[in-house]
Hints:
Largest interface: A-B, 17 and 17 residues
Distance between the termini of chain A: 50 Å
Number of helices of chain A: 17
Strand content of chain A: 5-15%
Structural class of chain A: alpha+beta
Shape of chain A: globular
Number of strands of chain A: 9
Shape of chain B: globular
Order of helices and strands of chain A: EHEEHEEEHEEEHHHHHHHHHHHHHH
Number of strands of chain B: 8
Radius of gyration of chain B: 17 Å
Number of helices of chain B: 12
Structural class of chain B: alpha/beta
Radius of gyration of chain A: 29 Å
Helix content of chain A: 40-55%
Order of helices and strands of chain B: EHEHHHEEHHEHEHEHEHHH
Oligomer: heterodimer
Distance between the termini of chain B: 11 Å
Mean pLDDT of chain B: 91
Helix content of chain B: 40-55%
Largest sheet of chain A: 9 strands, antiparallel
Amino acid sequence: MPADHSTQTFLLYRLEQQYDTQTIIKLLASLGKLAQQPLQHSQSTMKDSFDWRLYRAGYVVEEVHQDSTVHSLLRHIESEESRAYLAGKAPLVLSDDTPDPGTQWYQLIAPVMKLRALLPVLYRRSIIEEICVLNQDDKTVVRVSIEQYQVSTQAALAYQPLGRFLRVSPVRGYHKQCKRTLEKLHHSLHLQDCLQQNLYTLSLQTIGRKPMDYSSKLKINLDANMPAWLASNHIMRILLSAIEANEAGLTGDIDTEFLHDFRIAVRRTRSALTQIRPVMPPEVMEHFQLEFAWLGQLTSPPRDLDVYLLNFVRYQQALPVCMRHDLEPLRTFLKQKRKQAYQSMIWQLHSSRYLRLKKNWMAFLNSDNPINSRPKEADETISALASQRIEKLFTHVLRQGSAICPDSPPESLHALRKSCKKLRYMIEFFRSLYEKKTVCGLMVHLKLLQDNLGQFQDLAVQSTSLQEIQREMTAAGLLSQSNGCAINILVEQLHQRQAVARDTYADCFKRFYESKNRRRFCRMLRRAHP
Amino acid sequence: MKVIATYNIKGGVGKTSTAVNLAFLAASQGANVLIWDLDPQGAASYCFRIKAKVRGGGSKLLRGKSEIDTLIKGTDYERLDLLPADFSYRHFDLVLGDVKRPKILLNKALNALKHDYDYVFLDCPPSISLLSEAVFHSADALVVPTLPSILSLRTLKKLLAFRTDNKLHNMKVLAFLTMLDRRKKLHNHVAQAWPDMGPWALNTSVSYASEVEQMAERRQPVMCFAAHGRASKAYTALWVEVQKHI
């Protein structure tokens, strides 16, 4: 029996089938008056984002269907305490437009979920019989419940039994009574130690799901002595899994992050094809470079439109209050364009070209890649190749960045941005080969530089695109004078923000270029695992 | 954490009923709630079937010599706890009178709870005393159940004057009419004039209802045994209105 249960919200034990409710009631009756609650049947859907954001924060959303009503709870996984309540089903995606953004539900969940949709992870059926042990004032001093659960991956599929459990929930301030109850139950029911795992994790195991089986962050573990071609194939397979994992969410248009993660995986693949190219036969590399370039291009228009719509509230807030409504025709137009762009992209993703690309790519990655078809560099160790590539890219970034002065054209910053991206992807691919602390330090400054360059370029693209969209809307007769005026002011503001980003470039690059960072980089390469 | 005190100098106006019902509503909406029964009569403790007894007595508690955490009891309702009354609370003024800065003593005790609760309801005794002043200093809002009678309104005005005279500008007073009986001419007269009396006058009123009196007999919040009754609806509306102000 646990020595001190005073801080626990409940204790959960597996219960043998032989001990039915009546047996337990008879046992508890010797402790005092009892109040048996009505039997509770309920059906729950446990929800989280595709990339387990709530799980990582220690939470899960439980949508409870009981007695023809539905409500949602934000539950802490370990303690099972509910931290927020919502009448009805939980909204799929929380956004700035969600009604009642001031509620506790929004305040707790929005910072964790951000743009991601709440999706079902598992379905659970439960039957709960609760018995309250009362004192002489008919006050509940301990709660004992007998719980049975079944779980499933989908509502329509067969449910698997999770088991039968006995839960003892102390009431705050009545620990002596709880201790007496536990002693009685342990002695008579021969209870084993209480469950170490929480019910949610146990449910996931039962249906064969592993928490955090998807993350947009790359986790590549490489052995420094691995041949480069083998390491390269391993990286490409991980990237292909990421592409495939996001397909269903993307084609279903569930949330904007599916497309975002899909594009990142495609960009990383393209970068790997370019940077690790010597380990592949040139004709193979060229073919796949073209095909992945096509894939990247067809996803660009929908992503651009997603970005405009995600930024829309910010666009409005940048305008005087009296003008904010004048942007609404723009929002309507963007939504329409987005719908068309998504339809076009989804059609392409169902095309034989895309299916052929995946099939051929997988076939190549799974092939034996015989030694006589590999370039000789393919057999180098991956640590040697990685260090060589990273050093070359780092030097290139330093040179390119140093050449940029206040009068440099925007194209030079764009080129630097592309180089920084390549460097970053390479460090991400091969970070397991280097000292963690040093890599983190290097990435902080690289990310700051990338953020500055990214902001500069994104603002330029946005202002150009919005002007183009304004022309389209004008030609279609969709824009009044006041609407056009609002867009003009918005574009002007984007230009101003772009100018600010340009002015801060020098400072961001200086931090990247400073000797401390360069020493960090040299240290990283020197201390690569042998 | 928001601290809401149900307060009136007069007794028998519905402070405990208000504290118990609003605390229950807050908890049922998902908030973590504590109700502190500051009245030595222990009515709120009685409603929740909890013995009005605090280990070590009220003086030790207020002076910070008892761990407040260990004295709290869980009620029968999820997310709703109670810090019970104790007969020794009648000596609170003596304790407060003995210290240099009496007004902050209650605040210190409440500060220890700020990470555990979203709301703390203080069910105050009927008086104007050092304890009351400590409550004024600590509470985010004073919810004042007010009988629709001349003497009650007079008492309310005294409270508002006390606030002005002592420059307690941050003390939010939220008064509402309680035990309203529309059959009585005077009650109707007061109810009609009520909305114009001041920004502190809440729109919601709680009519006289036997269900509220039954709370003590049943020892439950009114929502638990008369969820669809007038009183339950009135307190629900009251809670919605109070929340808008805090």
